[in-house]
Design brief:
about 400 residues, Cytochrome p450, five-stranded mixed beta sheet, three-stranded antiparallel beta sheet, about 10% strand, globular
């Protein structure tokens, strides 16, 4: 089975059939990469925890999936913990988790509030009665600015930082990505040097100061962790905001519930993550031994594609899974993965989602799709997100003083 561009536009239609008829099947992704697609919740959960499933990117990827090697990105950037197995993964995660303290995350809340308000103020000034693209004007710039603040990028580096990393995150040519990689390394080196001289309360300073048994992160490990934060923290948040806003527009009664009771926003974000999460197929994995899944044997040294999107819509786990219900018990959804590779930045992503979506719902008394819009999803299989989201916004009337 070939997962072509049509799959990206209606993945749930195929997943519904596969969960029923072929929950483990051999597929070919866009670009020709082959492997085994797993779609049921229980199977995906089991494999996310299975020690026979490896993520050792450095040694296995060039051999098993050369088409997925990205030579335009320096090893300084992509040799991070998401691409490693224990014990190396364990060592790096123990170091990095020291910087993800509740205090560090709490410091980000007013920053995220201010960024969201500034972007929406700018939208109000520019849009008038015209539709705006919520992706380009809001969902995409917000996480880039949050990441810069999270790493403690100084004012003089803020604009160069955004200019350097943006091509790595968008669909551009290999040449542009290579140049972006070089520029990102240059900027990160300068920022790391500054934090070594004058550490602050930011996440990067925390990672520089972290140690286990007297040993901390090397320069290359710091660089790779910054890159992981940039890439993992960008598209997931972009898609969470875009997919979430669309789900609320498509379900106006649910949107009204959030508008009338802002305390429901956090629950709405959890249901968005379950119902239409930002990650389709989890990051690259392969079998180190034969693995029997639902009576189908995935051979050793074959790639495994775990669909988080499909697992979260499995009626065997969530009753009426195709219904969007912000007051549902979403406990157990795996939009951020599970096991040792569970997303370290999940609390920050939730914070950004609650703030960004909550601000839109409370600011505008009408959020509707532009009737001329044709919604299209990006053609990748890793992320699940809209190319654009043209909407019309009507501002909530402000009370007179």
């Amino acid at each position: 089975m070939i997962l072509d561009e049509q799959f990206a536009q209606d993945s749930e239609g195929l997943y519904r059939m596969l969960r029923s008829e072929a929950p483990v099947c051999e597929v070919e992704l866009i670009g020709g990469v082959r492997g085994w697609l797993v779609t049921r919740y229980a199977d995906v959960m089991a494999l996310l925890k299975d020690p026979r499933v490896s993520k050792d990117h450095t040694s296995a990827l060039p051999r098993l999936a050369p088409d997925r090697v990205r030579p335009y990105i320096s090893p300084q950037l992509h040799n991070h913990m998401l691409n490693l197995d224990p014990p190396e993964h364990t060592r790096l995660r123990r170091l990095v988790v020291q910087a993800f303290t509740p205090k560090a995350l709490a410091r980000m809340q007013p920053v995220i509030d201010a960024i969201a308000d500034e972007l929406l103020d700018d939208i109000d000034l520019r849009s008038g009665d015209e539709p705006i693209d919520l992706m380009a004007d809001y969902a995409e710039p917000l996480p880039i600015q949050v990441i810069a603040e999270l790493l403690g990028v100084a004012v003089e580096y803020a604009q160069p930082f955004r200019a350097a990393v943006t091509p790595l995150l968008m669909s551009v040519t290999v040449e542009e990505k290579a140049e972006s990689g070089r520029a990102t390394i240059e900027i990160l080196n300068a920022v790391i040097d500054e934090k070594i001289r004058e550490p602050g309360e930011d996440l990067l300073s925390g990672m520089i100061g972290a140690s286990v048994d007297g040993h901390g992160l090397t320069r290359d490990e710091l660089m790779a962790m910054c890159f992981l934060l940039i890439t993992a923290g960008y598209e997931t948040t972009v898609n969470l905001i875009g997919n979430g806003t669309l789900a609320l527009i498509d379900n106006p009664s649910q949107l009204e519930k959030v508008r009338e009771n802002p305390d429901l926003t956090a629950g709405a974000v959890e249901e968005i993550l379950r119902f239409d999460g930002p990650v389709n197929i989890a990051t690259w994995r392969y079998a180190t031994a034969d693995i029997d899944v639902d009576g189908v044997v995935i051979p050793a040294n074959e790639q495994i594609f775990l669909s988080l999107l499909s697992a979260n819509r499995d009626t065997g786990r969530f009753e009426n899974a195709d219904r969007f219900d912000i007051e549902r018990n979403t406990r157990g959804h795996i939009a951020f993965g599970h096991g040792i590779h569970y997303c370290l930045g999940a609390p920050l992503a939730r914070m950004e989602g609650v703030t960004a979506i909550g601000r839109i719902v409370q600011r505008y008394d009408s959020i509707t799709l532009d009737p001329t819009a044709e919604l299209r999803y990006h053609n990748g299989t890793l992320m699940h997100g809209l190319k654009s989201l043209p909407v019309r916004l009507t501002r909530v009337p402000q009370p007179r003083p």
